Amino acid sequence: xxxxxxxxxxxxxxxxxxxxxxxxxxxxxxxxxxxxxxxxxxxxxxxxxxxxxxxxxxxxxxxxxxxxxxxxxxxxxxxxxxxxxxxxxxxxxxxxxxxxxxxxxxxxxxxxxxxxxxxxxxxxxxxxx
Length: 129
Fold this sequence. Notes:
It comes from Morganella morganii (Proteus morganii). The protein has 129 residues and is an alpha+beta fold. The protein has two helices and seven strands; from the N terminus they run αββββαβββ. Strands 1, 2, 3, 4, 5, 6 and 7 form a seven-stranded mixed sheet that branches.
């Protein structure tokens, strides 16, 4: 599964804890990821074993909006140049950036959690062992 390689890649790039789906209740900061869609690549009547998946990566940082944006840039800089390369040890054809959202949540003790969510379209072979 590509998810374990995405998790380790995000951890290495950001030096932050990485979680699937959502931050745990006891975590204030971290990186989250989830697969949003994963259709097979097709060109007309030809189908392949390539998946064109959309993954949403969430960056959640306390009191530092600029850091959240810099982490987003670090992930883009690491992943966007990939052409017939790897995320972690998983073979990947291409990575493209997609949608972008931002959020701000006021917590207790004058703390603000900034969130930056970025979609990445990752094309990869489905059956890798």
